[in-house]
Each structure stands twice: as structure tokens, then as C-alpha cells.
Amino acid sequence: MAASLSLKDVSLHFGGVKVLQDVSFDVEPGVIFGLVGPNGAGKTSLFNCISGHYRPSSGSISIDGTEASGSPPARLARLGLARTFQHPALQLNASVLQNVLLGGHTRLPGGPVSWALRLPYTARSERAIRTEALELLDRAGLAWAADLPADELSHGLHKGVELWRALLSRPALLLLDEPAAGLSHGEVEQLIATVKRLRTEQDITIIIVEHHMGLISALTDRVVVLDHGRKLMSGTAAEAQSDPRVIEAYIGKDAADDAA
Amino acid sequence: MSTAATVRRPRVRMILTAVLAVALIAAPLALPAFANQTLIRIGVYAVAVLGLNIVMGYTGQVNLGQIFFVGLGAYVTAYGVNHGWNILLVFFAACAVAGLVGLLVALAAARLGGLAIAMVTIALPIVGVPLAKRLSDFTGGSQGTSARFTDAPDWSGLDNDQWQFYIVLVVSAAAFLLARSLVRGKYGRAFAAVRENEAVAASMGISPYRTKVLAFTIASIFGGASGFLYLAAVQYTSPETLSFGHSISLLAAMVIGGAGSIAGSLLGGAYYVFVPQLTNAIDPNLTTVSQGAILLAVLFLLPGGLVSLPRVVRRLTRRSATRRSTARPAAETSQQTPPAQHPVPDAAPEGPEQTERQDGP
């Protein structure tokens, strides 16, 4: 079920600003893939291209061999793509359970007339998805929060709720945009354990954009390093961390020389 | 905080629903004609407000043209009745024509997004009034058109106002039940997601465009149904029915009743009918001023609309209860109340802004 992803010469321009230039890489099904690079490297822009929120200026993005660039995000979501956002985007006055349930949208059958008439199968599917959402929350140790309004939770838990919301859609390809941003040390450990568990229990491809090198080293099979909208290198996290070009991109040429 | 209430709720709710149903069925037999007519008009406008609530309260799309669909439904009803159509056919035609026009408008307007939808919907009643005057073959022109089809049949033994009450009751109860099921579950969450953040909605597989078109079309169908009921109650419609001012009153009624609330729509209908009566009784020369004052007072005291009154009262009583029990340790009391004492504003979206900077390499 896990999806493969292939990018070929993806470029993105905003007016004269070249945000991404000819980025190409492949992600095999079932791997955890890291997308790293200094601030402003274009990681989140690339993410938005993959998830359909931006349309690349040129190049192709294919998911499981089907061309995805140019498709609206809602269609990609129905094809099995799910994502979280850098800044958790929850409905703060709705309950945590309702927020998670939103992720189940594509799995609920029936149109508005069936739901307005409350046909038995709509009620059944709603009950089933609700049970599943509660189980997800329960396993995450968040059962106590299910009925609380989301704004009563901490930032760390907001990120958790976003992750569970994305997972309720049973994605084949999951994009995590800076999942560790703003988390405490303990929360990052928990996140790493959660993603590891996901990988063993579900057939899923995961792509992570992250600054937190600890998390990237602990989780990813392969990484691509972006700098100024270009692919700098690809390899394992360890290779990336010792690559002089990467060090230079992060801390500048002079500093890199001083360090050497 | 409300766990005890939610546990007890199902049975209480069932009893309340039964009592309400019996009261509504018995009411027209016991009440004087004037009271019945007031209740009928509340039902008529509650359905229009309900539709407006789905597109605006739930989905967050500004719609200033709801009265246009009410007028359209009323005209279609008058036309059908005067051409001797079956009354059920008339009802479905009123809903379908309004829904179809709503769908076409939404297909175009929802592409524009944001305030453009509001501008297009302003145009509807503004174009609608002169159009209703011109198309006199269908509408009777400035004179308007009347259609009598809700006189009580002899076998029923009812007065006309009682018969009309039951027609309005059946249609509006059906509308409210359908809307209630729709906004709970899949589509309610989709509407709210589009209202809160379209990018998030889209990444959940919810097309913002299609959701807006859906909500707008539903609002138009309810507007058409409300127009049918309007003609059932008033038996006459003219271009004045769909004037822009009424549309703004409907909007005010929705906000006062409670945006994003089904029960609030009913309260909105009541507000729409009662407040002009009330302000006329105070001083007929000052109706607009006193209406404005009431609007402001409600918005200041109950920003969530009249439907939030029980919640606010509960919060106030709880607060005074904790204040009275100062004997308790301070830590305990403060633990109990934070959600009540600090109603966190709905939008505090950019919280993690600083954390991102901290996290830089």
C-alpha cells in the first residue's frame, strides 16, 4: 500500500524569485525519507508542491507512477496522501476528537443527501470511524483529551493531534512538516518512538521536513539536503552530517573553514 | 465541566423533544389566531435563517442575498398555484428553482473566493427587485401577485391559521431535522474545516470549492422552502418581499440567534419576527434606533448569540459558586475554573511562531 514518490526537475518560481530549481529525487515505497536544509532552503515549498498546495513552475511529481503535479490537494488526499503542517492548524474551539475525525473524511462514504437523511450506512460508518479515532487517541495516551476543546491542549499535543488526524485517513504517503518544531526533548523522544512504531505496524511511506538532526538521524533511511532551492546532496543522515558542503550551507563558508 | 450534563443528556433530551412536539401540535388549537400567525411567521423565517446559517455560520461564506431565494421561492409558488399545479409539485418546484439558481450563482461566485462571494450575493436582491417588477407576466409586476392555497379544507374542521400552522410546522420541522443531521458528521466537519482553514480542508480531501458550492446550494434550497412557506402564510408576494434590507435583517437574525447553531436559527427566526413588533410597541418613531440598540446589546452581552445564553449563565453561576467557596485551597479552585475564566479567543493561530525561530540550527 505504501506509495512511491518521484520528483523530476521540479522548479518553482514566485515572480522572479526562484524558490526551487531542478530538484530531482526518488522515494521508494515504505522508507522514511528526510528533507533537510537551512532556513529558506525551500523545503516547505517543495512539500507544498508535493501535497498540491503549490503548482510547480516546471518538472514532474509522480506518486506511484501517476502524475500528481497540478492536481488540487483534495484530489491527492483522496489518492492516499496526507500531511501535517508546520504550525498546527486545528479547529481550536472544536473537540480533539472532532479534529481527529476530520482526517477520516475520505473514508466516509455517501453524499450530502444520504447524510442529511441519516441513512443507516452513514450512521454506521460514522460510528466505525469514531471508534477508530478514539482507539488512535487511546493508544497515543490522549483518551482523556478526546472531548476537550483543542485550545486547552499544549502546543506539543496540538502537533500530536495533527499527526493522528493525518493517520486516520490511512495514508499511503505521509508528509510531516517540521514535526519536532517547538517540542520539548521528551516530546521529541515520544515522536521518534511513534514514527518508528508507525513504520513497523503500517505499510506507509513517510517524508519528514525537519531541522532537528537528532530526529532525522534516528528515523530516516535516506535524506536529501536542499540549499537555496537546489539539491545539495542525497544519502544517509550520517553522510549528510559529515558532508562539507552541508556544513558550509548550515554555518557558512568561513565558519566551516575555521572549524576544519 | 459539562460531563455530568452530557451523561444525563440523552434521556432529558428525549423527554424535552416529546414535550416540545406535543406542545407544537397542541399550540394552534389553544392559542388565539394572532399568536398562531406570529408563530407561523417565525417558522417561515427560521427556515430562511437556517439556510443562511449553513452557508455563513457553518461554512463561513458571506451571503447577503438570502432574501432573493426566499422571494424566488414565493414567486414560483404563486405561479404554480395560479396555474393549478399540485401543491406538492409547487413545493418541490419552489425548492428546486431556488436551489438551481443558487447552484449556478455559487458555481461562478465560489471561484472568486473571499469577499467576491459577498459582492455577488449583494447583487442578487438588487437585481431581483427590478426584475420582479419587469417580468410582470410571471410576477404581477409592482402590484405583486397573490395565491390562496392554504385555506383549511372542510374535513379538517380547522381554522385557516391553524391549518397554515401545521403546514409550516411540517416543512420547517423537516428542514431543521435534515440540517441537524447534515451538520453532524462528515459534512459538518467539512463545512467547519473550509471555514477555519481551506488549506487544511484540502489536505484532508475536502475540496473547498465544492464544499462552498454545496453549502450555498443548500442555503438556496432552504430559502426556496422558506418562500413557499411565506406564500402559505401571507398568500401574497411583491417585489418588496425580496428587498435588500430584509436580507440584512435575516443576517442580523442569524447572528443574534447564534451563528453555527441549528437551534440558534430558530431563535433567529423569532428575533426577526418579534423585534420589529417589540420596537413598534416601544415607540413607532424610533423603531430603527431601538432595533440597533437591541442588536448591539445582544452582541456585546452574548457574542455567541442568544443560543449561548444557557452556557453564559452556567459559567456565571459557576464563577460565583467558586468565589463563594473561598474556604477551599486557592490552587484547587483555580484548577477547576480556567476554561471558564479565560475563554481563549477563537483565533490564536500563530502561536508556534517563536518556537520555530528557537529551533533554527
Q: How is this structure best described in words?
A:
Chain A: InterPro entries: AAA+_ATPase, ABC_AA/LPS_Transport, ABC_transporter-like_ATP-bd, BCA_ABC_TP_C, P-loop_NTPase. Chain A: GO terms for molecular function: ATP binding. Chain A: Residues 5-253 form the ABC transporter domain. Chain A: This is ABC transporter ATP-binding protein. The complex is a heterodimer of chains A (260) and B (361). Chain A has 260 residues and is an alpha/beta fold. Helix content of chain A is 40%, strand content 23%. Chain A has helices at 43-50, 73-78, 96-102, 112-116, 120-139, 155-168, 185-201, 213-219, 237-242, 244-251, 253-259, and strands spanning 5-14, 17-27, 32-36, 58-63, 66-67, 81-83, 173-177, 205-209, 222-227, 230-235. In chain A, helix 3 packs parallel to helix 6 (155-168), helix 5 packs across helix 6 (155-168) and helix 10 (244-251) packs across helix 11 (253-259). Chain B is an all-alpha fold and 361 residues long. Chain B has a domain at 30-243. Chain B is 75% helix and 1% strand. Chain B has 17 helices and two strands. The longest helix of chain B has 28 residues, at 3-30. Chain B is globular and about 70 Å long. Chains A and B meet through helix 2, helix 3 and helix 4 of A and helix 7, helix 8, helix 9, helix 10 and helix 17 of B.
* Number of beta-strand segments of chain A: 10
Q: Oligomer, anyone?
A: heterodimer
Average the pLDDT over all residues of chain A and give the rounded result. 90
Q: Which two protein chains have the largest interface (Cβ within 8 Å of the partner's Cβ), and how many residues from each?
A: A-B, 53 and 43 residues
Structural class of chain B: mainly alpha
Largest sheet of chain A: 6 strands, mixed
Q: How much beta of chain A, percentage-wise? A: 15-25%
Helix content of chain A: 40-55%
Task: Summarize the helix and strand pattern of chain A as letters.
Answer: EEEHEEHEHHHHEHEHEEHHH
Distance between the termini of chain B: 42 Å
Protein name (chain A): ABC transporter ATP-binding protein
Pfam families (chain A): ABC_tran, BCA_ABC_TP_C
Domain ABC transporter (chain A): 5-253
Keywords (chain A): ATP-binding, Nucleotide-binding, Transport
